[in-house]
Predict the structure.
Amino acid sequence: MLRRHFWGFLFILPAAILFILFLWLPIIKGFVYSFYDVDFVKGNTFVGFENYKTVFGDANVLIAVKNTLYYMGLCLIFGFWVPIMFAVMISELKRFQGFVRVAAYLPNVIPLVVLYGLWRWIYDPVGPLNALLTSLGFNQIAFMVDKAWSMASLVFMETWQQFGSGMLIYLAAVLSIPRDWYEAAEIDGAGVWDRIRFITFPSIKKLILLMLTLQLISTSQGYQSQLAMLDGGPNNATLTYALLVVKYAFTRLEIGVASALGVLMFLVLAGLAVLQFRLNQEEAKRG
């Protein structure tokens, strides 16, 4: 078998080496470091489960877990359906479809530094959003200071910036559906909503399930906007689990505790991936 597939193995060898070095080796070292007091100067000291005791004894961990679940829920409610709706609407357009695709994707190419500066200005108490609210007769909202609004403000910003990439994936799936199905449905008198409900959604439901799993995994690891915009504030309102890991590792320099937090996250996400794989298997058996 090795001789038969020698050149194939040779071509994938560089990618396999990079995959091992930059993915699996750090995961393994993370498991190992979670049992050590890591000191890159004096050397590592084995401490057993002390790092895990520190994790379960830290009140901020529970706050971070709640904030992460809240963040994931907001992203699911407000962010997950936006690219699907845009993809369906664009697929129904008869004219200017290419222009709308480009326009919807443009926010995705904005550099993060520019993005955060732009939305800090938009959310400012004297910024354009509050100016619009006051002109309509509403009170000003302290988007970046009020705990009730801070996480939702970040989710809205990220949805605006990132929905374009998901929209293109869904749009490709929608446009791959045979046009004959839609034409037959129109002949039978089906309206736009009927075509979407009985043709579009059933045809892309596997993709929706896959994208849902990927979004849950990615949002569970979210920390960039929370760190750059508010550093976990106000009063830990945007302190996510991944941000807490970053703070333990790079602010407190407690690499062992950060590794223990990472291991726990890895186990939860691995379980989620296994669940998604089993759901796909069951769906394949039914199909």
